[in-house]
Amino acid sequence: MNKVILMGRLTRDPEVRYTQTNNTLVASFSLAVNRRFTREGDTQTADFINISAWAKTGEFVSKYFKKGQQVAVVGRIQTRSWEDQQGQKRYATDVVAEEVYFADSKRSDSDSNNFEDTFGAESTNTNSGETSDFEVSSGDDLPF
């Protein structure tokens, strides 16, 4: 099984490019993931992990993720190799994002307003006689 779950902060805004063969969007970014434990004398307390998000996931990342934001990524590790211009064999290990989530615990007021403008503010039903399909009355039996 090849599955990785990471939570960290974006070190830069996502960089968007398109593949040459079928013009698929790819968003690339790097996450600073804090280490849980550090060795004595070790000054680096975070790992910087390169991540790529393809197609619809990449569109979401490029639209809503910004530098410094805390996010969670679920994906898989992928290795690749190539020869550089000097003929040297090069290797890279990346995480390919399959799922991405916002992980900030608190938004500022300006972030909250941007979120509401994008996704719509939560509305309440002011008409006392109307019910929506998603309301639950106290007499309903719930399966959980």
Labels describing this entry:
globular, 5-stranded mixed β-barrel, single chain, mainly beta, 40% strand, 144 residues, OB fold (Dihydrolipoamide Acetyltransferase, E2P)
User: How many β-strand stretches?
Assistant: 6
The biggest beta sheet reads: 5 strands, mixed, barrel
Rg for CA atoms: 21 Å
Query: Could you name the CATH class of the domain at 4-36 and 44-106?
Result: Mainly Beta
Spatial strand sequence of the major β-sheet: 1-3-4-6-5
Model description:
This protein is mainly beta. Helix content is 15%, strand content 40%. Strands 1-3-4-6-5 form a 5-stranded mixed beta barrel. The longest helix has 11 residues, at 109-119. The chain is globular. The model is unreliable at 112-138 (pLDDT under 50).
How is this structure best summarized?
The protein is mainly β.
Q: What is the topological layout?
A:
Elements: E1 4-10, E2 15-18, E3 25-34, E4 46-54, H1 55-64, E5 70-83, E6 89-102, H2 109-119
Parallel strand pairs: 4-6
Antiparallel strand pairs: 1-3, 1-5, 2-3, 3-4, 5-6
